[in-house]
């Protein structure tokens, strides 16, 4: 338990005073314990060194050494969590000058966790060796990855960054960066995509679900007869009529994949959004959008809905 600052100052002042008066091992130990509880790890380690210098340290040499080892572990974790490391890297001609550039994702690792913080795109220009750091709005998550490929047809390598959010819906953060007119631009981000691609999901009579796509003004009808009888009987009566209105939803972007559908060296983006029924784990299928660069933005080339099959 951490102490508040008033208690910390008073306790530390008290033990320093007693040390000056008596230099008793008990007060060195008490000071170290207070510093440790207050999160003053470096100070506590120095105090323990002083406490161990006594012939008969308090409470014992063994306990002080154990305390020292625990604090050293804490200090190591603190140092590792604040150290920026390279998570992944790729090489490609980002600015189209014919020279390979180095592209990195750097971040801070959370101790004892696969969670990364302060994820940053870093580009080292292959010609000048200068570094450019590109922050992202959503810069924390799991499994950050890099892909380099031409999405815009400018004959340079564009940059796709994908980060797992760790949320129950399996959503991701995603960005595409490209050099346009001599400047690195964000030409895709998952927040804007999620705002644009909105849907309604309604259960219908006769074991069907209607999915309305607002952006493309298209409608899809899903057949639920593959679901087991227990599932269907909970929401439909024997005549296939809904017992009560039910609405589902479509989750935010959960997958974004570079695919060269036309085999022309220019990648499209294939985006997946999971359709949920009564609850998130009640998955009904996926909305799939193929996005193609039109010179100004990624626009939908086609949209499909993929559903799950049943055993035959």
UniProtKB/TrEMBL annotation:
InterPro entries linked to this entry: Integrin_alpha_N (IPR028994)
Keywords carried by this UniProt record: Capsid protein, Virion
The protein's name in its UniProt record: Inner spore coat protein
Organism of provenance: Peribacillus simplex
